[in-house]
Specification:
About 35% of the residues lie in helices and about 20% in strands. The protein has two domains: about 15-230, Endonuclease, Chain A (2-Layer Sandwich); about 230-470, 2-Layer Sandwich (Endonuclease, Chain A). Residues about 460-470 have low confidence and may be disordered. The protein is an alpha/beta fold. It starts with 12 loop residues before the first strand and ends with a helix.
Length: about 475
């Protein structure tokens, strides 16, 4: 039994996973996914914020079977398996740009008339909201839950080179270094994610999906599991609608995990713009023996509007937290290549001590906590006997730090043993080359003036105050 997962409060369900693995960055994700897809016998379901049939699933380590382009790969799978049905559900608003691409439109038209491809645009959401979850389920046997959409700009290697020919988009543009994360899961947990996908398909108006009757092993061939025989929780955000109750499991789990931390909280998120999460962090920073808290963000949010909204909100939250951080235990960092190019952080990861690991689609922002649809999975080491789960959670955190710092995982482990500090380890190892740079708030004087008039952490005013600066 987990000491933190509470179905109906901070998660939907807790199910057994025969095996699961963390997939860091796009190359590893697409390699594992295409291997699982190749083993599907009867059904593939894909839910996403975006889907681009032109995406090429390159592999610098292995020679993959079948076409590189995901749309052509689906066609190849269908040709080789007459029993296979494919269901694609994507956010309707985000799909509008697909209709402006001739190739994309032709593919969608061809699939529309294909009797074994079922393509649905999901309009079951409030005005302005999005279906942001990224879930792929193969034959109810293996599932992927992540922050990675099957779309452009997502592919990159863990080396995050200054330039890479496989990062070139259809327009010839290199999207730049991109950091992301996913989990692949097998067992009852995959079956539960299949039920999640089927429910979203029905809510979007989709016809009944094909029942899976065949037994299949769709685990990616050659991939070593990180975790075996352990319970895993599924947490969701669902917006309140006339025909749907709001679900805030993701927000509750964030707050519960922050409260449960003893020594370290390590997080990666595309944004840091939630007053509730900031308030929970502020409470822990006020404790004399509270945890160190490190958040890895991109240097700036994507796009002009997101940058204006999210970056200003982050600046205010950061400065407000600094006022509470009297024991100097809070940092925000940005990853950069050795050549000084910022690496965009799109991963959504939370690791607490050596006990809890959480990966999914949700960010530290208000949309993810109550407006968009989101799906995360989480592991509690205390729910499994022995130290294997705990040690692997620690390894995963150190491995992420090693990637960002351009060193071996063993160097991070040694520095952690010496400093007993996440912040100390980053400062010790990140002095040159590939590194994590500390966040510096822009326009500090303006931020301080704003904070003098607005208390982000006032529980009576937090929602209204933060709503005034952060709508995303």
């Amino acid at each position: 039994m987990s000491n933190i997962f509470k179905p109906g409060h901070n998660c939907w369900r807790v199910e057994h996973a025969d095996r699961s693995a963390v997939l860091i960055d796009g190359e590893n994700y697409f390699r594992a996914m295409r291997k699982s897809l190749a083993q599907a016998k009867q059904r593939i379901m894909l839910l996403g914020w975006d889907f681009d049939e032109r995406v090429e699933m390159h592999d610098t380590e292995e020679t993959p079977d079948g076409p590189l382009r995901i749309g052509a790969y689906f066609d190849w799978l269908l040709q080789n398996n007459r029993d296979l049905e494919i269901y694609l559900l994507r956010w309707d608003t985000g799909a509008l740009k697909s209709f402006l691409r001739v190739n994309g439109l032709m593919t969608l038209i061809r699939w529309y008339f294909h009797r074994r491809v079922h393509f649905k645009l999901d309009a079951h959401h409030p005005v302005g909201a999005a279906h942001h979850q990224k879930v792929v389920v193969i034959d109810e046997d293996t599932a992927f839950c992540s922050g990675i959409d099957v779309t452009n700009n997502r592919w990159d290697t863990r080396s995050h080179e200054e330039e890479h020919r496989h990062r070139l988009q259809p327009d010839g543009h290199d999207a730049g270094p991109w950091h992301d994360a996913a989990m692949v899961l097998q067992g009852d947990i995959a079956n539960a994610l299949s039920e999640y996908a089927e429910q979203h398909w029905r809510d979007a108006g989709g016809k009944p999906v094909k029942t899976v009757t065949a037994s299949a092993d769709c685990w990616p061939k050659g991939l070593e599991a990180d975790f075996t025989n352990c319970p895993i929780a599924i947490a969701r955000t669902l917006p309140e609608m006339d025909d749907q109750e709001g679900v805030n499991e993701i927000e509750n789990l964030y707050l519960d995990l922050i409260a449960a931390a003893k020594d370290f909280i390590y997080a990666e998120s595309q944004y840091f713009a939630s007053a509730r999460i900031a308030s929970a962090i502020a409470e822990r920073l006020s404790e004399e023996s509270g945890p160190e808290i490190v958040i890895v963000n991109p240097e700036s949010a994507e796009g002009w509007l997101e940058s204006e909204i999210m970056d200003s909100g982050r600046a205010r939250i950061h400065e407000a937290l600094k006022r509470r951080d009297k024991y100097n235990r809070f940092r925000i960092f940005h990853p950069f290549t050795a050549g000084g190019t910022p690496i965009y952080v799109h991963a959504k990861i939370l690791i607490v001590d050596d006990r809890y690991l959480r990966i999914g689609s949700s960010n530290f922002n208000n949309r993810s906590l109550g407006f968009d649809s989101e799906c995360d999975v989480a592991i509690d080491a205390s729910a499994s006997p022995g130290q294997d789960i705990s040690e692997q959670i620690t390894y995963t955190r150190n491995d992420l730090l090693a990637e960002h710092l351009g060193v071996d995982q063993a160097e991070v482990e040694a520095a952690m043993a010496e400093t007993r500090s996440l912040i100390g380890t980053i400062e010790k190892l990140g002095k040159k080359g590939r590194r994590l740079r500390p966040y510096e708030a822009p326009n500090v004087d303006e931020v301080q003036k704003w904070l003098a008039d607005n208390d982000i952490f006032d529980p009576k005013r937090a929602d209204n105050v933060i709503a005034g600066i952060i709508s995303q």
